Amino acid sequence: MDRREFIAGCVGLSVAARAGEAIAQSGPLTRIIFPFAAGGSGDALCRQIAQYLGPALDRNVIVENRTGGDGLIGIRAVKGASPDGTMILVTTGPTMYLLPMVENQPSFDPAKDFVPVSQLARFEFAVAVSPLIDVKDFAQLVAWIKANPAKASYGVPSSGTIPHFTGWQLEQLLGLSMTRVAYRGSASIINDLVGGHVPFAVTTLSDLITQHRAGGLRIVAVSGAERSQFLPEVATLKENGVDLVADAWYGMWLPTGSSPDLARQLSAAVAAVLAKPEVKEKLLAIGLIPVGTTPEELSQELAANTAFWQPIVKASGYRIAD
Questions:
Q1: Can you state the angle between helices 205-214 and 186-195, rounded to 10 degrees?
Q2: How many whole angstroms separate alpha carbon 83 and alpha carbon 6?
Q3: Helix segments in 136-248, DSSP class H
């Protein structure tokens, strides 16, 4: 099963879940709130968890996509929910720690407004170039940017994201002047890379691999601390002399007031789901690395990421427009 087949199947699960919701209402019901659209790898992760979590908890578990506001709509829905386990938030770590940094008036505090459950899966980012520029590796990309400053624009999937701040860091560390172009997700970036409308981009690695292997674009660096298991032939930014590491992850939270016992029970159930060989295989097929942690480990990860990115975001000066 390849990445596109699996995600397509999960979209089918989404439709089935909505069709069966009326039946589920007759028994205990838990909603996993995912604050982004159906069809991507994060949504597929949610649906894999929901499929196995329901029987483990003896509850009906469905996924509900509450989109809008760069994730804020779904986050706010869970923030104000009853702490009885009927509503669970699954979102990216960066959504939880970056949004409060870039809002002029933060609408939530991830440490105070939510109870941590588990880190679910990690994913990676990469720098990719259009085949219409004569660049074969990262060193050649840096040389091309220096030689073509007026053309040096790069795409990111959205403003205020890890790719956004990774691009900003590249500018600072390499002493380059580049123009950031914010898109609405990776799909439109890839179309513009393939068509030569944007020369290079920083976005999610898993979204780039298919076109990289088909020759539609070229991945010239990955942003992890080590080479990616999905593309081991491509060097990291650190190997290219850039002291920069950036990756991200999906996590699960409950509304504030939820009991620690509930969080631990849910964490153990989720870890068991993510350890299933068939779940691991399906998640790895779409570029997600299953994890499964304790609530305490998720809390520590969130705090560490907040401490790491806070000075970078502050130095960039970026804020969400009111």
A1: 30
A2: 33
A3: 138-147, 162-174, 186-195, 205-214
Average the pLDDT over 86-112 and give the result: 94
For the ranges 118-122, 203-207, 229-233, the lowest mean pLDDT is seen at 203-207
The continuous run of DSSP H or E covering 49 comes out as: helix 41-57
Is the Cβ–Cβ distance between 61 and 50 less than 8 Å?
A: yes
Tokens of 161: 């994201």
- Containing H/E element for 252? strand 247-255
Can you tell me the distance from the alpha carbon of 186 to that of 155, in angstroms, rounded to the nearest whole number? 9
Lowest mean pLDDT among 18-22, 263-267, 276-280: 18-22
Residue 106 tokens, joined? 């933060």
Taking the C-alpha atoms of residue 52 and residue 163, their distance in angstroms, rounded to an integer, is: 32
% pLDDT > 90, the chain: 75
Amino acid at site 283: L
> Please, what is the angle between helix 295-316 and helix 93-102, to 10°?
40
Computed over every residue of the chain, the mean pLDDT equals: 89
Show the tokens assigned to 242: 């850039």
